[in-house]
Each structure stands twice: as structure tokens, then as C-alpha cells.
Design brief:
Blueprint (H helix, E strand, L loop, with lengths): L6 H6 L5 E5 L6 H14 L3 E6 L5 H5 L10 E2 L10 E6 L2 H12 L2 H9 L1 H9 L3 H16 L4 E5 L12 H9 L2 H11 L5 H19 L1 H14 L3 H16 L3 E7 L3 H16 L4 E9 L9 H14 L7 H37 L5 E5 L8 H12 L3
Parallel strand pairs: 1-5, 1-6, 2-4, 2-5, 6-7, 7-8
Antiparallel strand pairs: 3-4
Length: 386
């Protein structure tokens, strides 16, 4: 049997500074991250929840109409232990703009921000969101305003793409296209004329492919951005090392369903490959029966017995109605037991493959979580020893 994941121990350990929640879509990952943040704040931590998932559920559950790139204080939490709770949603382009404004002089920053190539890159370039998540996490950690940051990553396997951000950024910055675009500005020696002849052929091909204006925009952007490349790489590498360091805990969130647990296995294996500190698995929305000793088969048999015992005449309508209601309740119990048994078989396949991974189960709630009270219930399930 897998050890139980002790979330309160992780939350209460002041050495824990970052908790990263990852998992496939639709398993309640955002809710789990928000519940952890709320429970940590109400146990005395200065907590900030950063969501990279564009879904609006986090804001709604915390009583806000929206979240943006600035941490917002969450009202209505119990602050008697001295904690606080802030939440924010990553704005990819705004984060990129902030980096430019912080690391370039005002004139050069204005040139970069107005450049059409930059505007396209900062809004839609593949991998930008993951890199900006790394940047924002690094910014929050360096500010030292919060002693715990809870990160809610995007759904599906892209949730771990931010682990690749430093390497992918390095490949981009060291790539042939960047060298070509920088070559005109750096051609200052006589021997570069020969090289420039080759570069001219390549840029000619790029001009035909992209158009002269697009190529000029790209060259202008890369030339203005050149002095910032090293800083990008250094900060990404520093954040990557921060994720590997003691004080960071990764949590994989899954539902007791085959596809979700298959994705959870992928996350567990990938985190192990990257030497990231995995704290455990949150198995969310688990269905439990109030009468676990009454099997589905016995409940169905009892329901059939009641059906055959219902009076056929009209002399005892109340008695007949009672039989009918009891039989319906037994059938509902049988359905819950069948679902619970199926979920345990599916979860058992995961735990057998990963017997050392601590696991905590969160029971399925009768309604969707949409407020602080609901988040508090989830946090209680995560933290309470059962």
C-alpha cells in the first residue's frame, strides 16, 4: 500500500517555498492548487497562487471577477494565524513586455515593444508561454514577498514543457536564423565579406519566403534584443535549478480514470528523469460509498427482494411506497459501489507501478467547487489524516 501524502506537513514546513501542481485537463488541478493555497494561507503562510491555465475557475472560486498579471489579495480568508493569500494568472505578453522594460534602456525598450516581429513573438511564438511561466515564477520568488508560491500549470503534457524552456530558448538564441539576422550588424572585419556573401544568399531566400518588410522587422528586433539574450538564458537556468532544489515540491493531480492516470504516470516518470522533487499524487474526485461493507451484488439482490415484496393491492400505499424507495436507494448504492470498485482497480494499477509514491484521496463533492467554502472543504480533505 502506498504511503499517504501528508499535505499539511508539506505546507507547514517553512522550507517549502514552491509547490507545482501538474496533471491532465479536467482532473481538478486548478481547484487543488487553489485549495492548497487557501489552506496554506489559513495555516499562517504568505501564499501566492500563480495559474498558467487560462481557465477562469481560479478567479471565480476565490470570489474575483478576473485575474491578471498582478497578484490580487483574496478577501474573506481566516487570517488569525497571520497568513495571507494572493492569486494571479499569467499574462504571457505582459510578462515579456515587463522583461524588456526592466532589462533595456527606455529608448531601446520602446523600439522593441513597437517592433511587429516582437509583437508576434511575444503573443504566439511556440514555447513563449512556458518560458514566461519560468520568468514569472522567478520574479515572484526573487521578490521574497511570499514565503510559498503555488503554481497551477497548463493542462495535458504541455504542463511540463516549462521544464524544457531553458534548453529550447538556448537552441533558439544559438540558432542559425538568429546568426543570419545578426550578421549585417556584426560584419565589421574584412574577412567577413566572404561570409556575408553566403549570408546574403540566405537572407535573399528568406526575403522571398517572408517578404522584405518582415525580414527587416526581424533583423531590427534581433539587433535591438541581442544584448538581452544572455540574461534570458541565465534567468531560465536559475529558475530551472530552483525547481530542482530542496524547498520545491511537485504534485501530480489525477482523477481515478484510465486516461488521467496514464498521464499521471507520464508526469511521474518525466519528473524522475529531470530529477525534480516529486512529493506525491493527489487522486481527486474519488467516489466512496457510505456503506462500504454492503457490496453492489448484495445491494442489487436486496433491491430485487424488496421489489417482489411490494403489495399488489391498494390497501397499503404507504408501505408500497416505502418498499419502492428502499429498493431505489439500494440500487443507487449498488451503482456507487460499482463505480468505487472500478476506480480502485484503475488506481491500483497506478499504485502497483509506483508503490513508493505517496497518495492522498479527495472525495468527489456533490457540487462543483465555486467559492472559498468549497476550496476549504477540498483543503480539509487534502490535509486531514484519514
Amino acid at each position: 500500500m502506498n504511503p499517504r501524502l501528508d499535505m499539511d506537513r508539506i505546507i507547514d514546513d517553512r522550507r517549502t517555498r514552491i509547490i507545482v501542481c501538474c496533471g491532465s485537463g479536467g482532473v481538478g488541478k486548478t481547484t487543488a492548487a487553489a485549495a492548497i493555497g487557501l489552506r496554506a494561507a489559513e495555516r499562517g503562510r504568505q501564499t501566492c497562487v500563480l495559474t498558467v491555465d487560462p481557465a477562469r475557475r481560479l478567479a471565480q472560486s476565490m470570489g474575483l471577477t478576473s485575474l491578471d498579471n498582478t497578484p490580487r489579495l483574496i478577501e474573506g480568508i481566516d487570517t488569525s494565524s497571520g497568513g495571507s493569500l494572493h492569486a494571479m494568472m499569467l499574462d504571457m505578453k505582459r510578462t515579456f513586455d515587463e522583461i524588456v522594460e526592466a532589462h533595456a534602456d527606455p529608448v531601446r525598450a520602446a523600439q522593441i515593444l513597437a517592433n511587429p516581429f516582437y509583437q508576434s513573438l511575444s503573443s504566439s511564438f511556440a514555447g513563449t508561454q512556458e518560458y514566461m511561466a519560468m520568468e514569472k515564477l522567478g520574479q515572484l520568488r526573487r521578490s521574497d514577498e511570499w514565503d510559498l508560491i503555488v503554481v497551477d500549470t497548463p493542462p495535458s503534457r504541455s504542463a511540463l514543457d516549462f521544464l524544457d524552456a531553458p534548453e529550447r530558448l538556448g537552441r533558439f538564441l544559438d540558432g542559425r536564423l538568429i546568426r543570419v539576422l545578426l550578421s549585417p550588424a556584426k560584419a565589421t572585419r574584412p574577412f567577413t565579406k566572404v561570409l556575408n556573401a553566403g549570408f546574403s544568399m540566405m537572407t535573399g531566400a528568406l526575403t522571398r519566403l517572408l517578404g522584405a518588410q518582415v525580414l527587416r522587422d526581424a533583423q531590427t528586433f534581433v539587433t535591438a534584443f541581442d544584448t538581452m539574450f544572455g540574461g534570458f538564458r541565465e534567468r531560465a537556468d536559475a529558475t530551472y535549478k530552483l525547481l530542482q532544489a530542496p524547498g520545491t515540491s511537485f504534485l501530480v493531480v489525477a482523477a481515478p480514470e484510465p486516461d488521467a492516470l496514464r498521464e499521471a504516470s507520464y508526469f511521474v516518470e518525466r519528473l524522475d528523469e529531470e530529477r525534480m522533487p516529486l512529493a506525491g499524487l493527489i487522486l481527486n474526485r474519488v467516489h466512496r460509498s457510505p456503506l462500504p461493507r454492503l457490496s453492489a451484488a448484495r445491494a442489487l439482490a436486496a433491491a430485487e427482494t424488496l421489489d417482489s415484496s411490494i403489495p399488489n393491492d391498494d390497501t397499503a400505499p404507504a408501505e408500497a411506497n416505502g418498499y419502492t424507495m428502499a429498493a431505489a436507494a439500494l440500487r443507487l448504492h449498488a451503482e456507487r459501489m460499482s463505480l468505487s470498485e472500478r476506480e480502485r482497480r484503475v488506481a491500483g494499477a497506478f499504485t502497483s507501478a509506483h508503490p513508493a509514491i505517496p497518495v492522498v484521496e479527495v472525495p468527489a463533492l456533490p457540487v462543483d467547487v465555486h467559492d472559498l467554502a468549497g476550496l476549504r472543504d477540498v483543503g480539509t480533505a487534502l490535509g486531514s489524516a484519514v
